[in-house]
Amino acid sequence: MKQTEYTPAATGLKVRFGGQSVSGVKPANQDAFAAHNPDDQTARLKGAVAVVADGVSSCEDSHIASQTAVTSFISDYLSTPDSWSTRHAAARVISSLNSWLFQQNASRQGRDDSMLCTFSATIIKSNTLHCFHVGDSRIWHLRDGELEQLTRDHVHVERGRNYLSRAFGADQHLEVDYRQQELLAGDRILLTTDGIHEHLNRQTIAETLNGSPDPVDACSKLINSALAAGSDDNLTALLIEIDALPLETPDENYRRLTALPIPPVLQIGNRIDDYEVLEVIFSGTRSHMYRVKDLRGGRQYVLKAPSENFAEDSLYLDGFMREEWVGRRLDHPNVMKTFAPPRPKRFMYYLGEHIDGQNLRQWMQDHPQPPLDQVRALLRQVVAGLRAFQRADMVHQDLKPENIMLDRDGRVRILDFGTVRIAGIEEIVSPLDKSIPQGSVNYVAPEYLLGQPGSFRADLFSLAVIAYEMLTGELPYREPSVKRHRIEHYGELKYIPALRYRKDLPLWMEGCLRKALQPNPAYRYDAYSEFLQDFTTPNPRLEAQVREQPLMARNPLLGWQLIAAVLLVLNLLQLLL
User: Fold this and answer.
1) What DSSP line would sit under 140-202, residue for residue?
2) Residue 518: CB partners within 8 Å, gap ≥ 6?
3) What is the C-alpha separation between 382 and 89, in angstroms, rounded?
4) DSSP 335
5) Averaged over 375-384, what is the pLDDT?
6) Is the per-residue pLDDT at 37 higher than 80?
7) Are the CB atoms for 388 and 334 separated by under 8 Å?
């Protein structure tokens, strides 16, 4: 029996490491280096990692800083959520490590045993090199015999000597240089401490690398050459050989996605992998949902399977498998859970929690003009769920009433994760064309229609559309404007004031909706909490902004009524005169 899990792309990443570190003429070695080439699945999601650090020689315990920096960075980075982008994950780890070192140094109050070091890390994920750098160690890139320095030294010169201007543990808030570079098979990445590159120029380093195909041998030669040139410091070199990079063809992608067959349409009483169908919840052209019972454990689930109509649609199948992946990683009471199958699967489906209730669309039909307090209570729960996506570096991208469930206790769940944007997976090269705008007609954020990527502000826009519709029963933009796959500029979308449909709404709430529904994401709220605050508590500034709007913009219907009344009066006066 086969067992598969969502895998974003073929592995294909093959790297080799070689490194050497020596104390040189010094009695102790305060340099440190480490590298890790993980297994296939971790390599897909995290990449291969290499780090060097150079302890500041004037500090007795700087070797502890350098050793801690390289080992803890790798272990902590690999432990971050798979959904985080490389930059986000590494930055969080670096900030945490720097804070720890800074606190240790603060307790020593400037003694000679402070813990300070330089830090240079590389992460090779998919076809991209990510560099993180502090201090005067260096990262180099060799391609076709040409050597390029990717980092700049953080030093200032005083009386002919170089002094570090940045170091791990020196300041509470550390500024880290970040750079990314596309890679090709055959590239070589070199990390060195200043004991080498202060005594060997770029040409000498390049010639040594070009003449040494073995990474360990190349590092040894660099160190020996630097010592011969008079290096009086610790010396460390770490070389990464890029033997192969992930490059999944469309055929390989399809074979991976279809490793398990799509099950046939099921009826009540049918069985699949020891699950018995108790209820057909939904059966449509895109997917089928059933309430099932595990015949071994007795637990009930929702089983969702793709439709045969999409058996050859790789983009759809990728999204379907993504649903299970996302649901298993977001543990939040307002997000639907998916579960790891207790036994190997023989068909393509996933198991989710059974929610006894109705979706928000049905609730809206039952409550055409709900009280404001009821709307606020629902929005708070949806926002709580969306924050779970935001913390995981994810964007839902398809928020709409049909994808929000309310159980019989009034608890909200966000569901349908097939189009979720996962920052950590977006970095992985894929043969799939994902340029088609995400989201559903009437709820899609305008930036998608311009071909731009979405952030949490895209989900905020969709949420504001839902809030607007809950209050008015209408949509904030005319349907012809949003039923296209593309727009040329934000000005094509004309906002319809909510006051046109519901005159009892406070002006400040109109202002809140108007701001959250700005076509340009730069003009929307900077946080979900700000939106909730303005949706709950009167904001005089928003009220003033609405009052300052021309009457035709604030209430077009009333404006036209007044114009008609004026024209009528003028016509009557003409008749009388």
Assistant:
1) EEEETTEEEE-S---EEEETTEEEES--BTTSSS---EEEEEE--TT-EEEEE-HHHHTTS-H
2) 524
3) 26
4) B
5) 98
6) yes
7) yes
Helix/strand/coil percent split, the chain, to 5:
40, 20, 40
Instruction: Tell me if the domain spanning 14-247 has CATH number 3.60.40.10.
Output: yes
**CA 446 – CA 524 distance, rounded (Å):** 12
pLDDT per residue over 516-547, tens digit each? 999 999 999 999 999 999 999 999 999 999 98
Torsion of CA 217, 219, 223, 226, to 10 degrees: 110
Sheet-wide strand order for 128-134: 31-36, 48-54, 119-125, 128-134, 177-182
Looking at the DSSP bridge assignments, the partners of residue 36 are: 49
Cβ contact 493:481 at 8 Å: yes
Q: How far apart are CA 415 and CA 417, in angstroms?
A: 6
Tokens encoding 476 = 């904030």
Of the candidates 104, 90, 137, the one whose C-alpha atom is nearest the C-alpha of residue 118 is 137
Predicted local confidence at residue 551, as pLDDT: 52
Mean pLDDT of 44-48: 92
The pTM assigned to this predicted structure is 0.84
Cα(89)–Cα(45) distance, integer angstroms:
11
Distance CA 303, CA 349 (A): 7
User: What residue spans define the domains of the chain?
Assistant: 14-247, 251-352, 357-560
- Considering the domain delimited by 251-352, tell me its CATH architecture: 2-Layer Sandwich (3.30)
Helix (H) or strand (E) segment spanning residue 16: strand 14-22
CA–CA distance, 350 with 313 (Å, rounded to integer): 18
Long-range Cβ contact pairs of 129-132 (< 8 A, separation 24 or more): 129/180, 129/181, 129/182, 129/183, 129/189, 130/47, 130/86, 130/87, 130/90, 130/178, 130/179, 130/180, 131/177, 131/178, 131/179, 131/180, 131/181, 132/90, 132/91, 132/94, 132/176, 132/177, 132/178
Condensed to tens digits (0 to 9), the pLDDT of residues 186-229 reads 999 999 999 999 999 999 999 999 999 999 999 999 999 999 99
Kindly report, residue by residue over 127-169, the tens digit of the pLDDT: 999 999 999 999 999 999 999 999 999 998 877 677 899 999 9
**Cα–Cα distance measured from residue 301 to residue 254, given in angstroms and rounded to the nearest whole number:** 28
Describe the strand order of the beta sheet including 338-339 as a list of residue ranges: 271-272, 275-283, 287-294, 300-306, 350-352, 338-339
With CA atoms as reference, report the closest residue to 505 among 369, 379, 361. Answer: 369
pLDDT for 16: 95
Are 292 and 301 in contact by the 8 Å Cβ rule? The answer is: yes
CA–CA gap between residue 27 and residue 524 (Å, rounded):
59
Predicted confidence at residue 441, as pLDDT, reads: 79
Which listed CATH number (1.10.510.10, 3.50.50.60, 3.40.640.10, 1.10.260.40) goes with 357-560? 1.10.510.10
For the chain, give the number of residues: 577
Q: Output the CA–CA distances (angstroms, integers) from residue 484 to 144, 488, 503, 517, in the order listed.
A: 46, 11, 30, 18
CA-to-CA distance for 490 and 538, rounded, in angstroms? 28
Q: Tokens 């190349």 — which residue?
A: 218
